[in-house]
Design a protein that fits this description.
Layout (H helix, E strand, L loop, with lengths): L2 H12 L7 H9 L5 H8 L6 E3 L13 H7 L5 E7 L11 E7 L10 H17 L3 E4 L23 H6 L6 E10 L1 H7 L3 E11 L3 H6 L13 H7 L4 E3 L2 H14 L16 H4 L10 H8 L6 E3 L7 E8 L2 E8 L10 H17 L3 E7 L6 H4 L3 H13 L5 E10 H7 L9 E4 L4 E3 L3 H8 L1 H6 L3 H18 L2 H6 L5 E2 L5 H9 L1
Parallel strand pairs: 3-4, 4-5, 5-6, 6-7, 10-11, 11-12, 12-13, 12-14, 13-15
Antiparallel strand pairs: 1-2, 2-3, 8-9, 9-10
Helix pairs in contact: 13-15, 15-16, 17-19
Protein backbone atom coordinates (compact mmCIF):
# COMPACT_ATOMS: atom_id res chain seq x y z
CA UNK A 1 0.00 0.00 0.00
CA UNK A 2 1.47 3.35 -1.06
CA UNK A 3 1.77 6.37 1.21
CA UNK A 4 -0.12 8.48 -1.35
CA UNK A 5 -3.21 6.28 -1.00
CA UNK A 6 -2.99 6.24 2.79
CA UNK A 7 -2.67 10.03 2.91
CA UNK A 8 -5.65 10.45 0.58
CA UNK A 9 -7.82 8.25 2.78
CA UNK A 10 -6.66 9.97 5.95
CA UNK A 11 -7.49 13.38 4.49
CA UNK A 12 -10.96 12.31 3.31
CA UNK A 13 -11.83 10.81 6.68
CA UNK A 14 -10.54 13.91 8.45
CA UNK A 15 -12.85 16.13 6.39
CA UNK A 16 -15.87 14.32 7.83
CA UNK A 17 -14.89 15.28 11.39
CA UNK A 18 -15.99 18.39 13.25
CA UNK A 19 -12.43 19.69 13.58
CA UNK A 20 -12.20 20.14 9.80
CA UNK A 21 -15.52 21.97 9.55
CA UNK A 22 -15.07 24.64 12.21
CA UNK A 23 -16.82 27.47 10.34
CA UNK A 24 -20.02 25.48 9.92
CA UNK A 25 -19.83 23.93 13.36
CA UNK A 26 -19.51 27.33 15.01
CA UNK A 27 -23.07 28.15 13.90
CA UNK A 28 -24.32 25.12 15.83
CA UNK A 29 -22.55 26.18 18.97
CA UNK A 30 -24.06 29.66 18.82
CA UNK A 31 -27.50 28.02 19.01
CA UNK A 32 -26.33 25.81 21.90
CA UNK A 33 -26.92 22.81 19.64
CA UNK A 34 -24.63 19.78 19.35
CA UNK A 35 -23.15 18.41 16.16
CA UNK A 36 -24.16 15.05 14.74
CA UNK A 37 -20.86 13.52 15.85
CA UNK A 38 -21.22 14.94 19.36
CA UNK A 39 -24.66 13.34 19.60
CA UNK A 40 -23.09 10.08 18.46
CA UNK A 41 -20.43 10.28 21.19
CA UNK A 42 -23.02 11.10 23.87
CA UNK A 43 -25.33 8.24 22.91
CA UNK A 44 -23.12 5.25 22.08
CA UNK A 45 -20.78 3.37 24.40
CA UNK A 46 -17.15 4.37 23.90
CA UNK A 47 -15.20 2.59 21.15
CA UNK A 48 -18.17 0.49 20.01
CA UNK A 49 -19.35 2.38 16.91
CA UNK A 50 -18.67 1.09 13.41
CA UNK A 51 -19.60 3.63 10.75
CA UNK A 52 -21.07 2.80 7.35
CA UNK A 53 -20.74 5.13 4.35
CA UNK A 54 -18.45 7.72 5.93
CA UNK A 55 -16.84 8.59 2.59
CA UNK A 56 -20.12 9.22 0.77
CA UNK A 57 -20.75 12.71 -0.61
CA UNK A 58 -23.83 14.29 -2.19
CA UNK A 59 -24.78 13.31 -5.74
CA UNK A 60 -23.98 16.78 -7.07
CA UNK A 61 -20.64 16.33 -8.87
CA UNK A 62 -21.97 17.75 -12.12
CA UNK A 63 -22.79 21.10 -10.52
CA UNK A 64 -20.17 21.48 -7.75
CA UNK A 65 -16.42 20.83 -8.05
CA UNK A 66 -14.98 17.79 -6.27
CA UNK A 67 -13.07 19.60 -3.53
CA UNK A 68 -16.05 21.77 -2.59
CA UNK A 69 -18.50 18.90 -2.46
CA UNK A 70 -16.13 16.93 -0.22
CA UNK A 71 -15.84 19.94 2.08
CA UNK A 72 -19.55 20.72 2.23
CA UNK A 73 -21.35 17.36 2.13
CA UNK A 74 -19.56 15.13 4.62
CA UNK A 75 -21.14 11.64 4.73
CA UNK A 76 -23.99 13.10 2.63
CA UNK A 77 -25.55 14.57 5.73
CA UNK A 78 -26.20 11.41 7.74
CA UNK A 79 -24.03 9.27 10.01
CA UNK A 80 -25.01 5.60 9.94
CA UNK A 81 -23.65 2.48 11.56
CA UNK A 82 -23.84 0.11 14.53
CA UNK A 83 -22.74 0.46 18.14
CA UNK A 84 -23.64 -0.54 21.67
CA UNK A 85 -25.68 1.16 24.39
CA UNK A 86 -25.67 0.24 28.12
CA UNK A 87 -23.02 -2.46 27.79
CA UNK A 88 -21.92 -1.65 31.37
CA UNK A 89 -25.33 -2.90 32.59
CA UNK A 90 -26.14 -5.85 30.33
CA UNK A 91 -24.50 -8.60 28.29
CA UNK A 92 -22.85 -7.05 25.25
CA UNK A 93 -24.84 -9.22 22.82
CA UNK A 94 -28.11 -7.51 23.74
CA UNK A 95 -26.67 -3.98 23.65
CA UNK A 96 -26.30 -3.68 19.87
CA UNK A 97 -28.12 -0.75 18.27
CA UNK A 98 -28.30 0.77 14.81
CA UNK A 99 -27.65 4.51 14.53
CA UNK A 100 -28.94 7.03 11.98
CA UNK A 101 -27.92 10.59 12.84
CA UNK A 102 -28.87 13.43 10.54
CA UNK A 103 -26.31 16.22 10.16
CA UNK A 104 -28.08 19.55 9.80
CA UNK A 105 -24.80 21.27 8.91
CA UNK A 106 -24.83 19.40 5.59
CA UNK A 107 -27.39 20.90 3.21
CA UNK A 108 -29.80 21.54 6.13
CA UNK A 109 -30.17 17.83 6.85
CA UNK A 110 -32.08 17.23 3.61
CA UNK A 111 -32.56 13.74 2.21
CA UNK A 112 -30.46 13.11 -0.86
CA UNK A 113 -29.92 10.10 -3.10
CA UNK A 114 -27.03 8.50 -1.18
CA UNK A 115 -28.47 9.79 2.10
CA UNK A 116 -31.52 7.59 1.48
CA UNK A 117 -29.39 4.63 0.37
CA UNK A 118 -27.34 4.80 3.58
CA UNK A 119 -30.47 4.89 5.74
CA UNK A 120 -32.08 2.04 3.79
CA UNK A 121 -29.04 -0.19 4.24
CA UNK A 122 -28.91 0.30 8.00
CA UNK A 123 -32.66 -0.23 8.47
CA UNK A 124 -32.56 -3.44 6.42
CA UNK A 125 -29.56 -4.79 8.33
CA UNK A 126 -31.09 -3.86 11.69
CA UNK A 127 -34.38 -5.49 10.70
CA UNK A 128 -32.62 -8.68 9.63
CA UNK A 129 -30.78 -8.86 12.98
CA UNK A 130 -33.71 -7.48 15.04
CA UNK A 131 -31.60 -4.68 16.50
CA UNK A 132 -33.15 -1.46 17.89
CA UNK A 133 -32.68 1.69 15.83
CA UNK A 134 -32.08 5.20 17.14
CA UNK A 135 -32.54 8.00 14.62
CA UNK A 136 -31.90 11.75 14.91
CA UNK A 137 -34.29 13.43 12.49
CA UNK A 138 -33.30 17.10 12.44
CA UNK A 139 -33.53 18.42 8.88
CA UNK A 140 -35.72 19.10 5.90
CA UNK A 141 -37.28 16.88 3.28
CA UNK A 142 -36.17 15.77 -0.17
CA UNK A 143 -33.18 17.34 -1.88
CA UNK A 144 -33.82 18.16 -5.56
CA UNK A 145 -30.27 19.49 -5.94
CA UNK A 146 -28.84 15.97 -6.34
CA UNK A 147 -28.64 16.40 -10.11
CA UNK A 148 -26.21 13.51 -10.69
CA UNK A 149 -29.18 11.17 -10.42
CA UNK A 150 -30.58 10.57 -13.92
CA UNK A 151 -32.89 7.61 -13.34
CA UNK A 152 -35.14 8.81 -10.48
CA UNK A 153 -37.22 11.51 -12.13
CA UNK A 154 -39.99 11.49 -9.52
CA UNK A 155 -37.73 11.35 -6.44
CA UNK A 156 -40.14 8.77 -5.10
CA UNK A 157 -38.22 5.65 -6.12
CA UNK A 158 -36.69 4.58 -2.80
CA UNK A 159 -37.62 2.22 0.06
CA UNK A 160 -36.98 4.32 3.16
CA UNK A 161 -40.50 5.02 4.33
CA UNK A 162 -41.82 1.56 3.53
CA UNK A 163 -39.15 -0.30 5.49
CA UNK A 164 -39.10 2.25 8.33
CA UNK A 165 -42.89 2.25 8.84
CA UNK A 166 -43.19 -1.53 8.49
CA UNK A 167 -44.26 -3.62 11.49
CA UNK A 168 -41.30 -5.85 10.65
CA UNK A 169 -38.93 -3.03 11.53
CA UNK A 170 -37.46 -3.46 15.03
CA UNK A 171 -37.85 -1.06 17.94
CA UNK A 172 -37.50 2.52 16.69
CA UNK A 173 -36.56 5.54 18.82
CA UNK A 174 -36.53 8.96 17.15
CA UNK A 175 -34.90 12.09 18.54
CA UNK A 176 -35.34 15.54 17.08
CA UNK A 177 -34.01 19.00 17.78
CA UNK A 178 -34.34 22.24 15.84
CA UNK A 179 -36.27 22.01 12.56
CA UNK A 180 -37.78 18.68 11.50
CA UNK A 181 -39.91 18.96 8.38
CA UNK A 182 -41.37 16.87 5.54
CA UNK A 183 -39.59 13.52 5.07
CA UNK A 184 -37.72 13.79 8.34
CA UNK A 185 -40.98 14.57 10.17
CA UNK A 186 -42.45 11.40 8.63
CA UNK A 187 -39.50 9.37 9.93
CA UNK A 188 -39.93 10.96 13.35
CA UNK A 189 -43.68 10.31 13.43
CA UNK A 190 -43.35 6.65 12.41
CA UNK A 191 -41.00 5.81 15.29
CA UNK A 192 -42.27 3.76 18.23
CA UNK A 193 -40.98 6.35 20.67
CA UNK A 194 -40.44 10.01 19.89
CA UNK A 195 -38.21 12.35 21.89
CA UNK A 196 -37.99 16.08 21.14
CA UNK A 197 -36.08 18.94 22.69
CA UNK A 198 -37.91 22.08 23.78
CA UNK A 199 -36.23 23.84 20.85
CA UNK A 200 -37.97 21.66 18.22
CA UNK A 201 -40.38 22.45 15.41
CA UNK A 202 -41.97 19.50 13.62
CA UNK A 203 -44.20 19.70 10.56
CA UNK A 204 -45.16 17.83 7.40
CA UNK A 205 -43.88 20.77 5.38
CA UNK A 206 -41.33 23.52 5.94
CA UNK A 207 -41.72 27.19 4.97
CA UNK A 208 -40.66 26.75 1.32
CA UNK A 209 -43.17 23.99 0.58
CA UNK A 210 -45.95 25.87 2.36
CA UNK A 211 -45.24 29.03 0.41
CA UNK A 212 -44.98 27.19 -2.92
CA UNK A 213 -48.43 25.70 -2.23
CA UNK A 214 -49.83 29.20 -1.98
CA UNK A 215 -50.59 28.89 1.73
CA UNK A 216 -48.63 31.89 2.91
CA UNK A 217 -45.20 32.84 4.20
CA UNK A 218 -44.11 31.56 7.59
CA UNK A 219 -40.99 31.49 9.71
CA UNK A 220 -39.91 27.92 10.60
CA UNK A 221 -40.64 28.63 14.26
CA UNK A 222 -44.29 29.24 13.40
CA UNK A 223 -44.68 25.62 12.32
CA UNK A 224 -45.32 22.71 14.70
CA UNK A 225 -43.73 23.90 17.95
CA UNK A 226 -42.67 21.32 20.52
CA UNK A 227 -45.28 22.59 22.96
CA UNK A 228 -48.07 22.17 20.40
CA UNK A 229 -46.94 18.75 19.17
CA UNK A 230 -46.58 17.48 22.74
CA UNK A 231 -50.20 18.45 23.47
CA UNK A 232 -51.21 16.82 20.16
CA UNK A 233 -49.79 13.51 21.38
CA UNK A 234 -47.08 13.32 18.70
CA UNK A 235 -44.15 13.60 21.11
CA UNK A 236 -43.65 10.97 23.79
CA UNK A 237 -40.98 12.72 25.83
CA UNK A 238 -39.96 16.39 25.87
CA UNK A 239 -36.40 17.07 27.00
CA UNK A 240 -34.45 20.24 27.63
CA UNK A 241 -31.63 19.61 25.14
CA UNK A 242 -29.76 17.01 23.09
CA UNK A 243 -27.67 15.88 26.07
CA UNK A 244 -30.83 14.96 27.94
CA UNK A 245 -32.26 13.33 24.81
CA UNK A 246 -29.34 10.89 24.66
CA UNK A 247 -29.62 10.13 28.39
CA UNK A 248 -33.36 9.44 28.11
CA UNK A 249 -32.77 7.26 25.03
CA UNK A 250 -30.33 5.09 26.94
CA UNK A 251 -32.83 4.76 29.79
CA UNK A 252 -35.65 3.92 27.39
CA UNK A 253 -33.63 1.25 25.58
CA UNK A 254 -32.59 -0.28 28.91
CA UNK A 255 -36.16 -1.44 29.65
CA UNK A 256 -36.01 -3.66 26.56
CA UNK A 257 -32.54 -5.02 27.37
CA UNK A 258 -33.57 -6.87 30.52
CA UNK A 259 -33.50 -6.82 34.30
CA UNK A 260 -30.98 -4.78 36.25
CA UNK A 261 -29.18 -6.86 38.83
CA UNK A 262 -27.93 -3.95 40.92
CA UNK A 263 -29.46 -3.38 44.36
CA UNK A 264 -32.53 -1.18 44.02
CA UNK A 265 -33.77 1.60 46.28
CA UNK A 266 -37.33 1.09 47.53
CA UNK A 267 -39.72 3.43 49.33
CA UNK A 268 -41.50 2.45 52.54
CA UNK A 269 -44.59 0.59 51.30
CA UNK A 270 -46.64 1.67 54.32
CA UNK A 271 -46.48 5.25 53.00
CA UNK A 272 -49.14 4.39 50.39
CA UNK A 273 -51.83 4.66 53.05
CA UNK A 274 -50.90 8.31 53.54
CA UNK A 275 -51.33 9.06 49.82
CA UNK A 276 -54.77 7.56 49.23
CA UNK A 277 -57.47 9.84 50.74
CA UNK A 278 -59.93 8.41 53.25
CA UNK A 279 -62.72 10.29 51.47
CA UNK A 280 -63.46 8.33 48.25
CA UNK A 281 -64.50 11.57 46.51
CA UNK A 282 -61.13 13.26 46.91
CA UNK A 283 -58.34 13.10 44.33
CA UNK A 284 -54.73 12.02 44.82
CA UNK A 285 -51.52 11.96 42.77
CA UNK A 286 -51.11 8.56 41.12
CA UNK A 287 -47.44 9.33 40.43
CA UNK A 288 -46.76 9.35 44.16
CA UNK A 289 -48.17 5.83 44.39
CA UNK A 290 -46.13 4.73 41.34
CA UNK A 291 -42.96 6.07 42.97
CA UNK A 292 -43.66 4.03 46.10
CA UNK A 293 -44.54 0.70 44.45
CA UNK A 294 -41.80 0.69 41.82
CA UNK A 295 -38.02 1.07 42.09
CA UNK A 296 -36.87 4.59 42.92
CA UNK A 297 -36.32 6.84 39.86
CA UNK A 298 -37.21 4.02 37.48
CA UNK A 299 -40.50 5.41 36.10
CA UNK A 300 -40.31 7.02 32.66
CA UNK A 301 -43.58 8.64 31.61
CA UNK A 302 -44.72 8.96 27.99
CA UNK A 303 -47.06 11.58 26.47
CA UNK A 304 -47.64 13.36 29.77
CA UNK A 305 -49.20 16.40 28.04
CA UNK A 306 -51.77 14.35 26.12
CA UNK A 307 -54.73 12.25 27.31
CA UNK A 308 -53.99 13.23 30.88
CA UNK A 309 -56.62 11.01 32.55
CA UNK A 310 -54.33 8.04 31.86
CA UNK A 311 -50.64 7.82 32.66
CA UNK A 312 -48.44 5.46 30.63
CA UNK A 313 -44.77 4.58 30.65
CA UNK A 314 -42.13 2.12 31.79
CA UNK A 315 -40.69 1.33 35.19
CA UNK A 316 -38.80 -1.34 37.09
CA UNK A 317 -39.81 -3.42 40.07
CA UNK A 318 -36.98 -5.25 41.85
CA UNK A 319 -34.96 -4.48 38.73
CA UNK A 320 -37.50 -6.14 36.40
CA UNK A 321 -38.69 -3.90 33.53
CA UNK A 322 -42.45 -3.48 33.10
CA UNK A 323 -44.89 -1.39 31.08
CA UNK A 324 -47.34 0.65 33.11
CA UNK A 325 -50.82 2.14 32.72
CA UNK A 326 -52.38 4.11 35.56
CA UNK A 327 -55.59 6.07 35.99
CA UNK A 328 -55.12 9.74 36.86
CA UNK A 329 -58.09 10.88 38.95
CA UNK A 330 -56.68 14.43 39.03
CA UNK A 331 -57.90 14.85 35.42
CA UNK A 332 -61.56 14.14 34.58
CA UNK A 333 -61.68 11.98 37.72
CA UNK A 334 -59.82 9.36 35.69
CA UNK A 335 -62.51 9.07 32.99
CA UNK A 336 -61.11 7.85 29.68
CA UNK A 337 -61.74 10.53 27.05
CA UNK A 338 -60.92 10.38 23.33
CA UNK A 339 -57.31 11.50 23.78
CA UNK A 340 -56.68 9.04 26.61
CA UNK A 341 -58.14 6.21 24.51
CA UNK A 342 -55.87 7.17 21.60
CA UNK A 343 -52.89 7.31 23.93
CA UNK A 344 -53.42 3.85 25.41
CA UNK A 345 -54.34 2.32 22.03
CA UNK A 346 -51.04 3.47 20.54
CA UNK A 347 -49.18 2.18 23.58
CA UNK A 348 -50.87 -1.23 23.47
CA UNK A 349 -50.17 -1.53 19.74
CA UNK A 350 -46.45 -2.06 20.43
CA UNK A 351 -46.45 -3.92 23.75
CA UNK A 352 -46.61 -7.40 22.20
CA UNK A 353 -43.39 -6.64 20.34
CA UNK A 354 -41.67 -5.36 23.46
CA UNK A 355 -42.70 -8.44 25.49
CA UNK A 356 -42.76 -6.58 28.80
CA UNK A 357 -45.43 -7.45 31.38
CA UNK A 358 -48.15 -4.82 31.78
CA UNK A 359 -49.14 -3.46 35.18
CA UNK A 360 -52.48 -1.61 35.32
CA UNK A 361 -53.30 0.62 38.29
CA UNK A 362 -57.01 1.20 37.79
CA UNK A 363 -59.18 3.95 39.23
CA UNK A 364 -61.71 5.12 36.66
CA UNK A 365 -65.43 5.94 36.48
CA UNK A 366 -65.36 4.59 32.91
CA UNK A 367 -65.38 6.20 29.48
CA UNK A 368 -66.06 9.93 29.20
CA UNK A 369 -69.65 10.37 27.99
CA UNK A 370 -72.00 13.08 26.74
CA UNK A 371 -72.73 15.00 23.52
CA UNK A 372 -69.46 16.95 23.69
CA UNK A 373 -67.51 13.75 24.14
CA UNK A 374 -69.20 12.16 21.11
CA UNK A 375 -67.97 15.03 18.94
CA UNK A 376 -64.50 13.56 19.49
CA UNK A 377 -65.50 10.27 17.84
CA UNK A 378 -65.32 8.40 21.12
CA UNK A 379 -67.19 5.28 19.98
CA UNK A 380 -64.53 4.58 17.36
CA UNK A 381 -61.61 5.51 19.62
CA UNK A 382 -62.89 3.42 22.52
CA UNK A 383 -63.58 0.49 20.19
CA UNK A 384 -60.04 0.78 18.82
CA UNK A 385 -58.79 0.55 22.40
CA UNK A 386 -60.80 -2.63 22.99
CA UNK A 387 -59.36 -4.19 19.81
CA UNK A 388 -55.76 -3.49 20.79
CA UNK A 389 -56.31 -4.39 24.42
CA UNK A 390 -57.92 -7.74 23.62
CA UNK A 391 -55.01 -8.62 21.30
CA UNK A 392 -52.39 -8.31 24.05
CA UNK A 393 -50.41 -11.52 24.47
CA UNK A 394 -48.27 -10.35 27.38
CA UNK A 395 -48.80 -10.86 31.11
CA UNK A 396 -51.30 -8.37 32.56
CA UNK A 397 -51.45 -7.66 36.27
CA UNK A 398 -54.19 -5.30 37.42
CA UNK A 399 -54.61 -3.61 40.79
CA UNK A 400 -57.86 -1.70 41.32
CA UNK A 401 -56.98 1.18 43.60
CA UNK A 402 -60.44 2.65 44.04
CA UNK A 403 -63.08 2.93 41.26
CA UNK A 404 -63.65 0.27 38.61
CA UNK A 405 -66.72 1.22 36.63
CA UNK A 406 -68.12 0.38 33.24
CA UNK A 407 -66.48 -0.49 29.97
CA UNK A 408 -63.58 1.85 30.70
CA UNK A 409 -61.84 -0.37 33.24
CA UNK A 410 -62.42 -3.44 31.06
CA UNK A 411 -60.80 -1.73 28.08
CA UNK A 412 -57.58 -1.24 30.04
CA UNK A 413 -57.20 -4.92 30.98
CA UNK A 414 -57.88 -6.73 27.71
CA UNK A 415 -61.66 -6.41 27.53
CA UNK A 416 -62.43 -8.72 30.46
CA UNK A 417 -61.45 -9.25 34.08
CA UNK A 418 -60.56 -12.82 33.03
CA UNK A 419 -57.82 -11.61 30.66
CA UNK A 420 -55.22 -10.54 33.27
CA UNK A 421 -52.97 -13.13 34.85
CA UNK A 422 -53.98 -11.59 38.17
CA UNK A 423 -56.48 -8.92 39.15
CA UNK A 424 -56.91 -7.69 42.69
CA UNK A 425 -58.24 -4.66 44.55
CA UNK A 426 -57.43 -2.56 47.56
CA UNK A 427 -59.99 -2.78 50.41
CA UNK A 428 -61.81 0.47 49.59
CA UNK A 429 -62.28 -0.34 45.89
CA UNK A 430 -65.74 -0.26 44.34
CA UNK A 431 -67.09 -1.92 41.20
CA UNK A 432 -70.10 -1.46 38.97
CA UNK A 433 -71.46 -1.16 35.44
CA UNK A 434 -71.73 2.61 35.92
CA UNK A 435 -71.66 5.19 38.70
CA UNK A 436 -74.00 4.17 41.51
CA UNK A 437 -76.20 7.27 41.39
CA UNK A 438 -76.69 6.95 37.64
CA UNK A 439 -77.42 3.24 37.99
CA UNK A 440 -80.15 3.89 40.56
CA UNK A 441 -81.80 6.67 38.56
CA UNK A 442 -81.79 4.48 35.44
CA UNK A 443 -82.88 1.18 36.99
CA UNK A 444 -85.48 2.59 39.40
CA UNK A 445 -86.86 5.45 37.35
CA UNK A 446 -90.51 4.34 37.70
CA UNK A 447 -90.24 3.82 41.46
CA UNK A 448 -88.65 7.25 41.93
CA UNK A 449 -91.41 8.95 39.93
CA UNK A 450 -94.10 7.54 42.29
CA UNK A 451 -92.86 9.56 45.25
CA UNK A 452 -94.67 12.86 45.72
CA UNK A 453 -91.94 14.80 47.56
CA UNK A 454 -88.23 15.38 46.89
CA UNK A 455 -87.42 14.24 50.42
CA UNK A 456 -88.95 10.82 49.75
CA UNK A 457 -87.17 10.56 46.39
CA UNK A 458 -83.79 11.45 47.88
CA UNK A 459 -84.27 8.98 50.73
CA UNK A 460 -85.14 6.17 48.30
CA UNK A 461 -82.19 7.04 46.00
CA UNK A 462 -79.77 7.14 48.93
CA UNK A 463 -80.93 3.73 50.16
CA UNK A 464 -80.59 2.17 46.71
CA UNK A 465 -77.16 3.73 46.16
CA UNK A 466 -76.01 2.25 49.47
CA UNK A 467 -77.45 -1.11 48.47
CA UNK A 468 -75.68 -1.13 45.09
CA UNK A 469 -72.46 0.17 46.64
CA UNK A 470 -72.43 -2.65 49.19
CA UNK A 471 -72.84 -5.23 46.43
CA UNK A 472 -69.92 -3.72 44.53
CA UNK A 473 -67.35 -3.52 47.31
CA UNK A 474 -64.02 -5.22 46.76
CA UNK A 475 -64.76 -7.94 49.30
CA UNK A 476 -68.18 -8.77 47.81
CA UNK A 477 -66.78 -8.84 44.26
CA UNK A 478 -63.92 -11.11 45.37
CA UNK A 479 -66.43 -13.33 47.17
CA UNK A 480 -68.09 -13.97 43.81
CA UNK A 481 -64.71 -14.73 42.19
CA UNK A 482 -65.03 -11.69 39.90
CA UNK A 483 -61.50 -10.68 40.96
CA UNK A 484 -58.73 -12.85 42.37
CA UNK A 485 -57.99 -11.18 45.67
CA UNK A 486 -58.33 -8.15 47.95
CA UNK A 487 -54.97 -7.01 49.26
CA UNK A 488 -53.63 -4.30 51.52
CA UNK A 489 -51.95 -1.43 49.62
CA UNK A 490 -48.57 -2.13 51.25
CA UNK A 491 -48.65 -5.68 49.83
CA UNK A 492 -48.87 -4.50 46.21
CA UNK A 493 -45.17 -4.40 45.39
CA UNK A 494 -44.51 -7.81 46.91
CA UNK A 495 -47.48 -9.39 45.06
CA UNK A 496 -46.30 -8.04 41.69
CA UNK A 497 -42.74 -9.27 42.22
CA UNK A 498 -43.94 -12.76 43.18
CA UNK A 499 -46.01 -12.95 40.01
CA UNK A 500 -43.14 -11.82 37.77
CA UNK A 501 -40.24 -13.93 39.04
Amino acid sequence: MQKKEIDALTLRLKKTQDESRSNIIEKRFKKNFLTARQNLINLVDRNTFVEYGQLVIAAQKNRINQSEIVEKTAADGVITGFGKINSHLFDKQICNVALIINDFTVLAGTQGYFHHKKIDRIIKKATHENIPIVIFTEGGGGRPGDTDVKINNSWLDFDTFEIWASENCPLKIAITNGYCFAGNAALFGCADFKIATEESWIGMAGPSMIESAGLGTFHPKEIGSCDMQSKNGLIDIVVKNEHEASNISRQLISYFQGSVKEKVTVANQNSISKILPKDRRRVYDIKRIINVIFDKNSFLELKKDFGKSIIIGFARIDGIPISLVGSNCMHLSGAIDADAADKVTEFYSILNRLKLPLIVLGDTPGFMVGPESEKRNTVKKNSDLFRKSSSLKIQIICIILRKAYGLGIQSLVGGSFKKPKYICAWPGAEFGAMGNEGAVKLAFKKEIEKFSTNIEKEKFIKEKIEEIYNKGTAIEVASNLEIDEVIMPYETRDKIIKLLI
